[in-house]
Amino acid sequence: MSNTRESYVELIPLRDTLTNQTEEELRHTESELDIQEPELLCVVHKGPIRAETYVCPHCKAFYCRNCLDALKNRGETCWVCHNSFE
Ligand SMILES: [Zn+2]
Ligand SMILES: [Zn+2]
């Protein structure tokens, strides 16, 4: 399970995409980000992940622990790339 941690860390610098914005827009966006910290959205329940985060090793989709367990129990695959979670 240590692999999921490594993938998780690599994906964090999402803010790099903001550098093309004007200074004013950037400041505005950053103040908004400060309020609601980096929230990862689970692709299954479409909401912020409050518990442990899991990342699909194939497509880097985010799953919360609850949804991933549910998918595994039902024998489902990744909702994004349809690869097995194993
Ligand atoms: Zn979820
Ligand atoms: Zn996937």
Description:
- The chain is mostly helical.
- It has one domain (2-73).
- It is built from 3 helices and 2 strands, in the order ααββα.
- Strands 1-2 form a two-stranded antiparallel sheet.
- The longest helix has 13 residues, at 23-35.
- The protein is elongated, with a radius of gyration of 15 Å.
- The N and C termini lie close together (10 Å).
- The model has no long low-confidence stretch (mean pLDDT 77).
- Bound molecules: zinc ion (ZN) (2 copies).
- One zinc ion binds next to α3.
Features:
mainly alpha, 86 residues
Which structural class is indicated by helix and strand composition? mainly alpha
Mean pLDDT: 77
Helix content: 25-40%
Q: How far apart, in Å, are the first and last alpha carbons? A: 10 Å
Note the total helix count.
3
Low-confidence stretches: none
Task: Give the amount of beta strand, in percent.
Answer: 5-15%
**Total of domains:** 1
Provide a short characterization of the protein structure:
With 86 residues, this protein is mainly α.
Lay out the secondary structure.
Elements: H1 2-10, H2 23-35, E1 53-55, E2 62-64, H3 65-73
Antiparallel strand pairs: 1-2
This protein binds zinc ion (ZN) (2 copies).
One zinc ion binds at residues 56, 58-59, 61, 78, 80-81, 83.
